[in-house]
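If you are new to this repository, start here. Below is one unmodified record pulled from the training split, so you can see the exact layout before writing a loader.
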Amino acid sequence: MKNLNPEFCKSVKSARREAGLTQGQLATEVGCKQSALSMFEQGDGTKLNDEVIEKLAKKFNLSLSPSTPQPTTPQSLNPSIPQPLHRGFCPNPHCPTNKEYFVEEIRLFLPDREAADPVGGKYCAMCGELLERSCPNCGAPVHAGAICSLCGQPYISAL
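And here is the target side for that same chain:
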């Protein structure tokens, strides 16, 4: 979408957090990759196609006009608090809780769930991103590794 206001991208992130959605959940809902949504939320409006951007605007009732969009009440709020025993991980590849490493020139991130979620909270203790508690690709329970044992995809997408 030409001339997309970078503030719109940041408003999507704010509205997503208010709705209690992870990047993986929202990406699945609107039909894009979690990594593309992550870059979009950082202000890169070129990472999503027009159809996905329009779905985001409609979902969160945001204006695509050049003026600063104002998020309105999210469609649903989930006030439930996750169980501390099931720690989440931060999906942000730039977060210091995720340790970068390479396997055969493939860039992967090993999430440190205890550093990101020391008390069983909702947001990352280091960067404030909404924590993931299941595989963003298939929804399987998260284990201690960097790659889902069910679908074989990395938990955190390299940008």
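Two things worth knowing about this chain: The chain has two domains: 6-59, 84-159. The chain has five helices and two strands.
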